[in-house]
Amino acid sequence: MFKKSISKSNFIVINKIEVYFSMEPQLKKKILFDVLDGIPSSGNESEEVVSYRETIEQSYLTLEEEAMNLGISRDVIEFTEDFR
Length: 84
Prior knowledge:
By secondary structure, this protein is mainly alpha-helical. The protein has helices at residues 25-37, 47-57, 60-70, 73-80; strands at residues 11-14, 17-20.
């Protein structure tokens, strides 16, 4: 049996519980930037996309941590500094 490698960027910790999202990093980055830009959900997204979006919308700290996991924290922190 083959073991699938699971990247750390597929997990988000919410209230000390790791939540797994199987989406590709590029899709996660797109959703994250949509949230930062205030672009609302299109309404026809999968449950996983909606759940991921709601998770990062709940807290700027979660959003920043996810940006770090995706390697785009520098781009994101300048937007979230106003919320601290």
